[in-house]
Write a structure and sequence with these properties.
Number of domains: 1
Structural class: alpha/beta
Strand content: 25-35%
Helix content: 25-40%
Number of helices: 6
Shape: globular
Radius of gyration: 17 Å
CATH topology: fumarase
Length: 194
């Protein structure tokens, strides 16, 4: 079990291997489809982009938050299916130097290639554990692009022992999802041969 501080260093990311279990402390931002689209569009047009995206750990999540005094309290932080962001993620990784993506279901070979090039990992979160994951958030530090709504705006979170997550795609071009797919294909060939 590893416990790392986000933003992660390149050395931290490159030290991780498939199957490693990770807890995170430090800054994590949420981001889904609309955040990815706006961030890349703004970058392309020379418009402002939240600084918190640089070298970030981005969580594919549409959080449920409750107002708490002058701030917010996370009630549920469930992972979104990451393949939804596949068309945008390689560019996001390269443009913002993302160091980690938290989500579920894995991502494409193109995303894996961008992760290998720049030093980024995919951390698999357990679906259905949204309330448990919210307990790993010490503080909601801020919110960007509120006009996108609660689920799509970017929440800046301070994590403490956030996880656990499994390194399911590493910065060396390895993917647990591809390994499982290859095993299934091999088993199917064997089964069809009988």
């Amino acid at each position: 079990m590893k416990r790392l501080r986000s933003p992660l260093s390149l050395e931290d990311v490159r030290s991780l291997s498939l199957g490693d279990m990770v807890y995170l402390d430090g800054m994590v931002v949420t981001g889904r489809d609309k955040l990815h689209m706006r961030a890349l569009r703004n970058l392309d047009q020379g418009l402002p982009v939240p600084e918190a995206l640089r070298n970030a750990t981005i969580f594919h999540c549409g959080p449920i938050m409750r107002p708490d005094g002058d701030g917010w309290e996370p009630l549920a932080l469930g992972p979104t299916t990451s393949a939804r962001m596949d068309a945008l993620e390689p560019e996001m990784i390269r443009a913002f130097g993302l160091r980690a993506i938290i989500g579920k279901g894995g991502m494409s070979k193109e995303t894996l290639q961008a992760m290998q090039e720049t030093g980024c990992v995919f951390l698999a979160a357990t679906g259905g554990a949204a309330v448990s994951l919210s307990e790993g958030i010490k503080e909601v530090k801020g919110r960007e692009w509120e006009d996108l709504g609660m689920a799509e705006s970017m929440w800046v979170l301070e994590a403490e022992r956030f996880g656990p997550f499994i390194v399911a795609m590493d910065a060396h071009g390895n993917s647990l999802y591809e390994q499982v797919k290859e095993r299934v294909t091999e088993n199917m060939r064997r089964w069809e041969g009988n």
